[in-house]
Design goal:
The chain has about 300 residues and is of the alpha/beta class. The protein contains seven helices and 19 strands. Strands 1, 2, 3, 4, 5, 6 and 19 form a seven-stranded mixed beta sheet that branches. The two termini are about 15 Å apart.
């Protein structure tokens, strides 16, 4: 039986593994896809404290090696269920195996919703981004676009307006879903041009993005807009479906405060999959540390 089983080997899960092992807890980490999560697709990380610049892949591998050398056991297996409770103990079941555990940390995160158009994957990291806070600084003084109509999209446009020379805010409807105060701020900003009711239907560029094609939802007409970057802000997809009957959720996100404690005693959550406002590399690592230390305290109390 493991002291702590961690589900997910992104920055939150692997940070939790580091803290759990340093506390002397036997630790098993399950991962369905690849170590590092979304960060491995980021060519350059420049906003992590004390590291001026590093690729997302190198960051993830460094964290994996650190956790592995401390003695964390990694299993490349998708978890399908958590069974049991705090009193009788938990069993984490994957498609291939199961592991008894005294405490569980869910760190399965969330994935950015993609548009689903040609060349989107190829140009991701080369002008196409899903995080304005992460990548906005790379496009200082350049023309960029934001696609989306919620709070995140409008907030991204306002943030980028402080860096870029021009921001196109593209939304499929004339009315935004974002708070009216944010919309008013965007409309009042002379660097932001509202482009509605239109959707992004094409990307242009060989080695990097040079332009986007947008289609009018009313008449179907297309136009080309020259931009150096497209920031996609059309939502995220949390990966907590297998645990919906185990812990309380809200819109697919696991409900927990800054203490990372879920509604189920002995089960903790870390990273982008929990209910919170800021989802960054630093907050994922922070969650991992908090969840691990809370799990360690729980194990010791048994």
């Amino acid at each position: 039986m493991a002291d702590i089983v961690i589900i997910g080997a992104g920055p939150a899960g692997m940070s939790a593994a580091v803290y759990a092992r340093r506390a002397g807890m036997s630790t098993v980490v399950y991962e369905a896809n690849m170590f590092g999560g979304q960060i491995v697709n980021t060519p350059e990380v420049e906003n992590y404290p004390a590291i001026k610049k590093i690729s997302g892949f190198d960051f993830a591998m460094g964290l994996y090696e650190q956790a592995s050398e401390l003695g964390a056991e990694f299993r490349m297996e998708p978890v399908v269920a958590i069974q049991g409770d705090a009193k009788s103990g938990f069993t984490v079941r994957s498609e291939f195996s199961s592991e008894p555990a005294k405490a569980v940390i869910i760190a399965t995160g969330a994935s950015n919703r993609h548009i689903g158009i040609e060349d989107e994957e190829r140009l991701t990291g080369h002008g196409v981004s899903y995080c304005a806070t992460c990548d906005g600084a790379f496009f200082k003084g350049k023309e960029v676009a934001v696609f989306g109509g919620g709070n995140t999209a409008v907030e991204d446009a306002l943030y980028l307006a402080g860096l870029a020379s021009k921001v196109y805010l593209i939304h499929r409807r004339n009315q935004f879903r974002a708070e009216q105060k944010l919309v008013n701020m965007a409309k009042a900003n002379d660097k932001i041009e509202i482009v509605t009711p239109k959707i992004v239907t094409g990307l242009k560029g060989t080695d990097k993005l040079t332009a986007i094609s947008v289609t009018d939802m009313a008449d179907g007409r297309e136009q080309m807009i020259d931009v150096d970057a497209l920031f996609v802000a059309i939502g995220q997809i949390p990966a907590a479906e297998p645990f919906k009957t185990v812990v309380d959720q809200e819109n697919g996100y696991i409900i927990a405060g800054e203490d990372c404690k879920t509604s189920a005693e002995g089960i903790f959550v870390a990273g982008d999959g929990r209910t919170k406002t800021v989802r960054q590399l630093t907050t994922a690592a922070s969650d991992g540390a908090v969840a691990a230390l809370a799990a360690c305290d729980f194990v010791r109390s048994l």
